[in-house]
Amino acid sequence: MLAEVLIQVVVVVGILLPIAIALFVGRERLIRTRSEWRTRLKTAAPTIAVLLIVLLINRFARQRAPRLSREIGFHLTASFYNIEGEFILLFQSIATPETTAYFSSIYVYGYVFLVVFPVLAYFTLPDTRMFRRLLTAYALNYVIGLVLYIFVIAYGPRNVMPHEVAETMLFENNPQYQYLTREVNSNSNVFPSLHTSISATVATFAAITRSTFPKWFPVAVVLAASVAISTMFLGIHWGIDVVAGMLLAALCVVLSDRLVGRWSVTELLGERFEDRLPWLDRSE
Q1: Which among 155, 169, 144 has a CA at the least distance from the CA of 233?
Q2: Residue 132: what are its φ and ψ, rounded to 5°?
Q3: Span 84-109, average pLDDT
Q4: Which of 9, 65, 241, 284 could cysteine-pair with 193, CB 3.0–4.6 Å?
Q5: Any stretches that span the bilayer, and where are they (predicted)?
Q6: Which of 79, 99, 83, 80 lies closest to 91, judged by CA?
Q7: How far is it, in rounded angstroms, from Cα 156 to Cα 166?
Q8: Is pLDDT of 189 > 60?
Q9: DSSP for the chain?
């Protein structure tokens, strides 16, 4: 079943990406990227490597983190419920088969598209700084998020009040998605909402680059807002998780600006990467 869900995600996102590239990136940037991709990839290679290492560590750590979390983490589910109450049930007032289908699709397909497209779009820019900042912000989101998941043990509304949100719960309406989500997260890892933090990160970068990609900016904002709402509508996250995700996004965007360009990883590791990856040679 996992393979089938992954194929569905790849197919849907694979259809959306070429359309988005044609609408938001344009032919001229693609032509220029075709002749400059080696130079850009060489410049960004250390940042790409850091993100890949973070994702790899995150993949293995997520499997072992629950055990460590049980030993040193703080149980905050009751605290979140006492503070927030039944706030997320407000979203049940707009629950219809259509809205449930929309937010379910946004949570799975829309989120993946929202994460992947900016990577491709910013790579088409001659200056790789924005591309490197985006990847750095992604890495920071995952690192900080993982640390918080270890120290904060909290279950989402679907676990605390399953009957109240049963009508819109993701797994009730689309049980096949649980095979995908269980591969990347535990049901006790809800604070903060990484769906929200990474989506808000993308929306913030879209605002920063709105003069370069003017058509992408409103689309990114709508998608990011839809992702944040979907996490509550589907009973996965508390409002507190979403707010924390937005704050995390703001922190990661600021840190990415401070880190990228202050010191050059490329200068420190460039020769090593060039020796190991000769196909990146500019002379080709």
Answers
A1: 169
A2: -70, -35
A3: 85
A4: 241
A5: 6-24, 44-61, 106-125, 137-156, 216-236
A6: 99
A7: 13
A8: yes
A9: -HHHHHHHHHHHHHHHHHHHIIIII-HHHHHHHHHHHHHHHHHHHHHHHHHHHHHHHHHHHHHHHHHHHHHH-EE-HHHHHHHHTTGGGGGGGG--HHHHHHHHHIIIIIHHHHHHHHHHHHHTSSSTHHHHHHHHHHHHHHHHHHHHHHHEEB--HHHHSTTTTTTT-HHHH-GGGHHHHHHH--TTB-SS-HHHHHHHHHHHHHHHTTTTSTTHHHHHHHHHHHHHHHHHHTTSS-HHHHHHHHHHHHHHHHHHHHHBTTB-HHHHHHHHHHHH-GGG-TT-
List all residues 6 or more positions away from 282 whose beta carbon is below 8 Å from its beta carbon: 38, 39, 42
Token pair listed for 58: 């995150």
Is the pLDDT at 284 greater than 50? The verdict is no
Nearest Cα to Cα of residue 265 among 39, 118, 48: 48
Residue type, 109: Y
Shortest CA distance to 252 belongs to which of 164, 141, 90, 110? 141
Q: Where are the domains of the chain?
A: 2-282
CB of 271 within 8 A of CB of 28? no
User: Token pair of 37, please?
Assistant: 């991709």
CA 129 to chain centre: 19
Q: What is the pLDDT of residues 87-99, one digit of tens each?
A: 888 887 788 888 8
Spatial separation of the C-alpha atoms in residues 230 and 214, rounded to whole Å: 25
- CA-derived radius of gyration, the chain: 20
Phi, psi of 74, rounded to the nearest 5 degrees: -105, 130
- Cα separation, 191 vs 144, in Å, equals 11
A 10 A CB-CB count for 34 gives 9
pTM of the model: 0.84
